[in-house]
Amino acid sequence: MTHPSIHRLPRFRAAAVLTALIGCTAHADAAVAPAEGSGSSSGARIFSHICQGCHMPDAHGAVGAGHYPQLAGDAALASWQYAATTVLNGRKGMPPFGRPGAGYSGFLNFVMVYLTDAEVADVVNYVRSNFGNHFKETVTAAQVSALAHPGTPAAH
Amino acid sequence: MNDDRAPSALSRRDLFRMIGITAGSAAMYQAMSALGFAADSPYAGPVDLQHAPRGASVLILGAGMAGMTAAYELRNAGYRVQVLEFNGRAGGRNWSLRGGDRYTELGGAVQECVFDKDLYINPGPWRIPHHHRGMLHYCKMLGVPLEAFVQVNYQAYLHNSGAFGGKPQRYREIKADYQGHVAELLAKATRQNALDSGVSKEDQEKLLESLREWGALDGNFQYLASDETSDRRGFKKPPGGGLSARPTPSEPIGLTDLLKSDLWQNIPNGDIYDMQTALFQPVGGMGRIGEAFGRELGPLIRYNSKVVDIRQDDRGVSATYVDPANPDARMTARADWCLCTIPLSILAQIPMNVSPAMARAISAVPYASAVKVGLQFKRRFWEEDEHIYGGISYTNLPILNIGYPSTGYHSGGKGVLLGAYIWGPHAMEFTAMSPAERVRKAVEYGSQIHPQYPAEFDNGVAVAWHRSPFTMGCFGIWSDAARAAHYDDLCRVDGRIALAGEHASFITAWQEGAVTSALDAVGRLHQRAVAEGDKA
């Protein structure tokens, strides 16, 4: 759909939106309190403002004609690379959240939401240390930067 | 040649049919274009599926616009058709929520719509441009009455919470002032000979004349308060009759304030091809089309059927499906051919033996987020107090749009607004809320534009497309790179399976994309079926 404004809207950054929204919404804090030991309120905010739209506030996912995977107690999260790569590049219908390494059209910039490498690290750390997941090592922005990003040759 | 008719005896319609049969639909389309028809639509008229093989069958997955378009045409051509649909209704994203409807989103939240009689919200598509001729064709065929959809309303608002003290501005004023100031500046540059040498003396004169007209400039090429400029932007006191009739002109907004406000961003919305007047909506809600299609196809559609596996072999295609209420009872439907219109967000999760190229294409398209909120108010205050009849107000608040109903003007009683139409990051934010929270936020934000909201609000419903059980997203987002790498593989017939839907089109997110992709795919499946010949 060629929405109005697509030619003019600047590339959205989730962080800017989160900052703007947290000032006027209370639901995030009510929905998911930052869990103990996460050490990452940014991760909790990103989860409660973006991820839980599909993966649900309890990270149990959902089933309809297809399904959203459960992230609670998810053994696949043992690989932080898998988790971070999924957030950066999307997976099947899931949108990519990594900042593109190559040119994307105006339309994409208009509907997509981008996270910085630090924000990707934060939300990966948050999910891997909450919802019954107890993975110990913490991922850094630098480690996320080294992974393939949208529009780079490695990430189709 | 033993035909003694003169060539002129061929009617133009015959000529089209001949070209269509012998050279395929692309040639027919080009021919029609050259003769002044079909100049602006990919829809090339009713699809020609003559000589369907006797006994041939097609299994169609999904009873949305694509699936039902295909089912309708294939049935009429003589194919045996069966449609499997996940929902308990026809239409897919072609859908209206009305009083008495119940909607359960992913995660289990249930909404009971309690709108008054005849009031509705279209959670998905809500307008049909005049050049979406495939959609218009099927509306006509199905007897779905249309009415005008107001896209541009000069009385509606442009709003930026950080400009003009947060006070919404009339589209009329912003447009007139922007045009007037730009015209004045350009006229000044023209008269100072500051334009490029490409503008001849004669061009200059014509340009100045046109700028005066376009911008409502005065004799000195200035944009100032006057009857002429007020005739564009509206009067401080409008002209009337009798002794109190004398108008008072209004004062234009200064150029700096106007530019700083960013409100000019939304001036050209109605100039976009898909938004150009005339646009239409079905009387009674967009969902009337899907409902009519569903009635037309009747028992060909099996509802509450969730496809869990698709297998093809060298003789046909089998789809395994379950009723979600009884998921252990697996059933199978089989046909010679399959047209699959399941959104890629879901299809990517269904086992299906297609080529690696098609499988990669199916997995290469992420789905966009979008949210719509319908708000019922105790009275139509936007008409009664603000004289806004249809159209859209645009805002930088997270709700992005407020859409006013293009129907039921002046009717007493309650009214329903589209209280939010959100995409991008705010759509994800709203998706992450509960439905009640989305409605509450839509009322809260909308109150900044219409202060009547808190007193007049009655009830609301909110649809977040990523929470939709039957699409898991709003529409497929094709990056340029993904299109280049995968689009053709997605659309090519793979053995006995073809895909259709807005995701298999260049009219992303529009129903016309679903219709034209279905007709295109059906035409190609038909060619294969004809080549294979009659069934026993």
What this model shows, in words?
- The complex is a heterodimer of chains A (156) and B (536).
- Chain A has 156 residues and is mainly α.
- Chain A has helices spanning 14-22, 27-31, 41-55, 80-89, 106-111, 117-128, 141-145; strands at 62-63, 67-68.
- In chain A, a hairpin with a 3-residue loop joins strand 1 (62-63) and strand 2.
- In chain A, helix 4 (80-89) crosses helix 6 (117-128).
- By secondary structure, chain B is α/β, with parallel strands linked by helices.
- Chain B has three domains: 41-90 and 291-365 and 476-532, FAD/NAD(P)-binding domain; 97-155 and 277-285 and 368-467, Polyamine Oxidase, Chain A, domain 2 (Alpha-Beta Complex), CATH 3.90.660; 171-261, de novo design (two linked rop proteins).
- Chain B is built from 16 helices and 22 strands.
- Chain B has helices spanning 12-34, 65-77, 133-142, 171-191, 201-215, 227-233, 255-261, 287-297, 344-347, 356-362, 381-384, 425-431, 435-446, 453-456, 480-491, 511-532; strands spanning 57-61, 80-84, 97-98, 102-104, 110-112, 120-121, 128-129, 146-149, 157-159, 169-170, 279-282, 301-302, 306-312, 317-323, 326-335, 337-340, 370-377, 392-395, 401-403, 415-423, 457-464, 497-499.
- In chain B, helix 4 (171-191) runs antiparallel to helix 5 (201-215).
- Classes of the chains: A mainly alpha (156), B alpha/beta (536).
- The interface between A and B is large, with 51 and 63 residues.
